Amino acid sequence: MAGGGDRSAGAIRLERLVVTRPAPEAATWVSALREQGWPAHALPLIQITEPPSPDDLATLHHWRTHWAQADAILFVSTAAVQHFFARGVSAPPASSRTRFWAPGPGTARQLAQALAAMGLPVGRIDAPDDDAGQFDSEHLWPRVRSQVGPGRTVLIVRGASTLGLPPADPPGVPGSGRSWLIEQCVAEGAQVQGCVAYARQVPVLSADEQAWVDSATGEDSAWLFSSSEALLPLHALQPTRDWSHAGALATHPRIATAARQAGFGRVVQTRPTLPDVVRALESGWTRP
Fold first, then answer.
1. Nearest Cα to 22, choosing from 52, 45, 39?
2. Contacts of 64 by beta carbon, 8 Å cutoff, 6+ apart
3. Beta-strand runs (E) in 33-190
4. 129-132 contacts: CB < 8 A, separation 24 or more?
5. Is residue 111 over pLDDT 90?
6. φ, ψ at 201 (rounded to 5°)
7. pLDDT tens digits, one per residue of 212-270
8. pTM for the whole thing?
9. pLDDT tens readout for residues 140-151
10. Nearest Cα to 154, choosing from 76, 99, 80?
11. Which residues, including other chains, have CB under 8 Å from residue 151's CB and lie 6 or more apart?
């Protein structure tokens, strides 16, 4: 799917493709895109760190030990899986029937590795179908709605943000992010708990990285955004930069809207899979 800027899509020779995903995901995507002949370069615009709050760390420790008390656990991202299972997770009790929810295929793959290491079957994972129109809470919900009801506990594992986003979540559920699925679970009578496994921060760019930002503003440059939050550090780092000539690939309609609002003149919307991203690139650019 292509989204508009004020120029129609055309065969522009792409010299720079900036991958803004957090590390180490960015490096994985860069390698895969380079294998396809695209000039990808990693520039993570969200820095992932340990939660800075002692309360969040205490809650994280509790749920790493008592995760089986939840009937279902939603991991909002691959970072949520990686940081939750990084250390101190208790072995599964024989009575455990916990389900594990993932909003997209990347998170589901990360969960499959984590569960396999614990001896749990990947059949415990619920995620949107591979051919779903989008990978998000709205497409996950039909798969998991039957698991939710009075007396059920749903744990949301996610991050806390210092990127300047306004609070938008129900009180009592730690972390930041969209509240849509939380609201659906509460409406069905479930008890929703929250657990902050990591924090998102604005990165500190090196001189070389800053030079890359400076050089990637023309029509021969495109930025791959997998989160609308990544646009906030970009604005903070380059508050007066004109992006009207550069292109953006956005892996969700909300991200596409944020990219247009940030001033990107050419925005192409795609699903967050390698084949879809490559097709989106081919719709508007040519390989160098």
1. 45
2. 84, 87, 88, 89, 90
3. 40-42, 47-49, 72-75, 99-101, 125-126, 153-161
4. 130/105
5. yes
6. -135, 160
7. 888 999 999 999 999 888 998 888 888 888 999 999 999 999 999 999 999 999 999 99
8. 0.81
9. 999 999 999 999
10. 99
11. 189
